[in-house]
Design brief:
- The protein is an alpha/beta fold and about 375 residues long.
- The chain has two domains: about 100 residues, Aspartate Aminotransferase, domain 1 (Alpha-Beta Complex), CATH 3.90.1150.10; about 240 residues, Aspartate Aminotransferase, domain 2.
- The strands form three sheets. The protein has a five-stranded mixed sheet with strand order 2-8-7-6-5, with helices on both faces. The chain has a two-stranded parallel sheet with strand order 1-9.
- Strand 5, helix 7 and strand 6 form a beta-alpha-beta unit.
- The longest helix is centred in the C-terminal third of the chain and has 20 residues.
- The protein is globular and about 60 Å long.
- The two termini are about 35 Å apart.
Length: about 375
């Protein structure tokens, strides 16, 4: 059996504050049973999200010392731009302070009330940004993705037949673009196959509809493709990522995921008209187009982190930790979304707590119990 260990050394420790069970009950009551309102120092293990909460590498910390804080055209931006262009191949690259800012700019400039944007599954902030401007965010997850217990390699896929039926029903003129989210966060961090991305592109090309990707976890998705899809086992994660992006016309990203940084995002595209709209809105909301709400040191750290996320040793370790937890759940017959995704184990609370009616919120009950019993903040 192959043993996978951490491909890094830990050089700094941070003490944990562990409060008593009675104190946790009091903290939860004060937070009105909403774990988002808990103080983080009262959570011994915080699994609320991995977005922007991880430790950076020594190369990232070193790069931050090179951060140039010039208002326009800093060397830090050019490193950021060069790295993202190498991965995505996109013509226009705009930094944002995080992913939801990129989504907001996309929604505000390219959609209008009454439009429909299909996706395999919209992330919650993506959906909120579209709905805020009166656009309907439509989820078209494949049939396998609707069954939590089913074992399938690419449960995050777009349902191609439903996508074409949606276009025919609503008309190309009402669909400004369609999206795919990799990995499919809403469905449990499930991956999308390259075959599905290509098929989605072909359908959209047929109707002259632009293709936008939400790529917060592009490196994880590339790893799944490398491990599970025929013809990709010999390709590097960078090569696989470059092929994924080659099918897209634009992309949004929260760098707090596979950028391995604590803040940041980007918006990229190939179309000059889209870029002009993005640029004007970016200046209104985020800042000048070469810093986009970020400090130069943030741009430096992201440029390093994006490439480190494509390190096969890192991805192997990251996936092994999730599988380790899933195996422990299997030993205890705890139901979860199968197979495990790239960044988390999603417990099926409804199946785990069948005695709690849906309208009594079994998910919230489970999250609160985890905190009371173990000091673990889940979501």
């Amino acid at each position: 059996m192959k043993t996978i260990i951490e491909p890094f050394r830990i050089k700094v420790t941070e003490p944990l504050k562990i409060i008593s069970k009675e104190e946790r009950r009091a903290a939860l009551q004060k937070a009105h049973n909403n774990v988002f309102l808990l103080n983080s120092e009262d959570c011994a293990i915080d699994l609320l999200t991995d977005s922007g909460t991880g430790a950076m590498s020594k190369r990232q910390w070193a790069a931050m010392m090179l951060g140039d804080e010039s208002y326009a055209g800093s060397p830090s931006f050019h490193k950021f731009e060069k790295t993202i262009r190498n991965i995505t191949g996109m013509k226009h690259i705009f930094p944002t302070h995080q992913g939801r800012a990129a989504e907001g700019i996309l929604a505000a400039t390219r959609t209008k009330p009454g439009n429909i944007v299909p996706n395999n599954s919209h992330f919650d902030t993506t959906r909120a940004n579209f709905e805020f401007v009166g656009t309907k965010a439509l989820d078209l997850i494949c049939e396998e993705g609707l069954d939590n217990a089913k074992e399938a390699p690419f449960k995050g896929n777009m349902d191609i037949e439903k996508l074409e039926a949606t276009i025919k029903k609503h008309g190309r003129e009402n669909i400004p673009f369609a999206m795919i989210t990799v990995t499919n966060n809403t469905s449990g961090g499930q991956p999308v196959s390259m075959k599905n991305i290509r098929e989605t592109k072909l359908i959209l090309q047929k109707y002259d509809i632009p293709f936008v990707m939400d790529v917060c976890r592009f490196a994880e998705n590339a790893y799944f493709i490398q491990q599970r899809e025929v013809g990709y086992d010999g390709k590097s994660l960078l090569e696989i990522s470059q092929e994924m992006f080659s099918y897209a016309d634009a992309a949004t990203m929260s760098l707090k995921k596979d950028g391995l940084v604590n803040i940041g995002g980007f918006l990229v595209c190939n179309d000059d008209e889209w870029a002009e709209d993005f640029k004007n809105m970016l200046i209104m909301r985020e800042g000048f187009p070469t810093y986009g709400g970020l400090a130069g040191r943030d741009l430096e750290a992201a440029a390093v982190g994006l490439m480190e996320a494509l390190d096969p040793a890192y991805q192997e370790y990251r996936h092994a930790t999730v599988e380790y937890l899933a195996n422990a759940m299997d030993e205890r017959d705890i139901p979860y979304v199968r197979p495990v995704g790239g960044h988390a184990v999603f417990i099926d609370a409804k199946a785990f707590l069948p005695h709690i009616p849906a309208l009594h919120y079994p998910g919230i009950a489970l999250v609160n119990t985890l905190y009371i019993e173990g000091g673990i903040r889940a979501v």
